[in-house]
Amino acid sequence: MSIPEQRADGGPAAAPTAASLLPAGGRELDRERARRLAAVLAPGVVEYKVLVIDGVPHSKERPRFNKDGRAYKSPTDEAAEQRTAWKLRPAFRQPLTGNLAVGCVFFRPNRQWIDKDNLVKHVLDAGNGIAWVDDVQITAEYGVVELDVEHPRTILVVTRHVSSMDRSDVVAKVHRPPRKRKG
Question: For 108, phi and psi rounded to 5 degrees?
Fold first, then answer.
């Protein structure tokens, strides 16, 4: 059973619209979209990083498998991930540590059915070692798919996130020396 939302005066609250969460309009509103997204990801946040990545957002492909059953990335997926990583590099001097929240607004050039989770996964994987040490640090994420035929792009918002799932030790776990095999 759901509890109806109420206004401060006790009356029923108006249903949120897409425009109240992410304002409608063109590229000129990207910074406002990012500000609102940061407020949703981490209420009360003051500092956050915003990056607008021009171009059609890439969707992470399913892994491929060789004859031995080992998974690998397709060459197309690998190239797209490297392109996104290069676009992230100027915004991040070194990978962020600790818990992070990531929000993405993907502006697609057409109405093709694309899985939002695969769009987000592409960005998270591309940011490994550049924007964050490892995407296991992302303890909150939010993705939105929108349409912009003339200016496809991705708005990326990254901020600190408070969570009971402490990820401050990710650096030590990710960078530990590999185990030696027995035998």
Answer: -95, 155
CA distances to 8, 18, 98, 145, 152 from 15, in Å? 14, 10, 35, 20, 28
- Within a domain: 113: yes
Q: What is the pLDDT of residues 96-105, one digit of tens each?
A: 999 999 999 9
SS3 call for 155: strand
Q: Is residue 52 part of a domain?
A: yes
Residues 5/12, Cβ–Cβ less than 8 Å? yes
3-class SS of residue 95: coil
pLDDT per residue as tens digits for the range 5-25: 445 565 555 555 555 567 777
107 within some domain: yes
Distance CA 47, CA 160 (A): 8
